[in-house]
Amino acid sequence: MPLIQITEADHNVVLDLRYATSDNLTGKPVYRHPVCYLHPIAERYLRKAVDLAKPHGLRLKIFDAYRPPEAQWIFWNHTPDPIFLADPRKGSPHSRGAAIDLTLIDRDGTELDMGTGFDAFTDLSHHGRTDVSVEAQKNRFLLLGIMSAAGFDFYSMEWWHYQLFNARQYPLISDTALPLRIME
């Protein structure tokens, strides 16, 4: 099944695709082209999440969605941490277009406090932490509620990661299969 490109104009989101910049765990751009894709079911759920956030005066800011298996290997070779990175031999939900990393932003485009930054490989990134500020806890619960009500499952170790239920049932998709490649 072909992936759907996610754009700011068509989906009313903000794209901050970190792996196309040096602001990521490797310290250098991994994606050559900042293009965002999702599986059609995940894209439909994303639209619902956008609609659920809107009455609260909030929008979604996307850090990553589809991630080529080729990129997953780069991350794994840099930081082989099975808590925060899927072993590429098993495949990541991201590499199926079935996962999205994101946060909430206010009307001014300011990210809500979530207690840690995106891709903070620390226990403080886990859902349900009471040792982050009360405001961060509320914001995480708000994001969790929006994304769950939209149809997504969550990953308990990362407040920013949401995916389709049974995400590994979807096939891995190589960068070479994309209409506009991310890696080259």
Task: Write up what this structure looks like.
Helix 2 packs across helix 4 (134-150). The longest helix has 17 residues, at 134-150. The mean pLDDT is 96. This protein is an alpha+beta fold. The protein has a single domain (4-177), classed as Muramoyl-pentapeptide Carboxypeptidase, domain 2 (2-Layer Sandwich). A hairpin with a 6-residue loop joins strand 6 and strand 7 (161-163). The two termini are 22 Å apart. The chain is built from four helices and seven strands. The strands form two sheets. A five-stranded mixed β-sheet has the order 2-4-5-7-6, with helices on one face. The protein has a two-stranded antiparallel ribbon with strand order 1-3.
Unreliable sequence segments = none
In round numbers, the mean pLDDT is 96
CATH topology: Muramoyl-pentapeptide Carboxypeptidase, domain 2
CATH C-level label: Alpha Beta
- Cα separation of the termini: 22 Å
Tell me the count of domains: 1
Strand order of the largest sheet: 2-4-5-7-6
- Topology order in helix (H) and strand (E) letters: EHEEHEHEHEE
Q: Could you describe the largest sheet, including whether it forms a barrel?
A: 5 strands, mixed
Tally of extended strands? 7
Structural class: alpha+beta
User: How large is the count of helical segments?
Assistant: 4
Oligomer: single chain
The amount of beta strand, in percent, is: 5-15%
CATH structural architecture: 2-Layer Sandwich
Q: Helix amount, in percent? A: 10-25%
Global morphology: globular
Radius of gyration: 15 Å
Keywords: Cell wall biogenesis/degradation, Dipeptidase, Hydrolase, Metal-binding, Metalloprotease, Protease, Zinc
Cofactor: Zn(2+)
Organism: Lacibacterium aquatile
EC number: 3.4.13.22
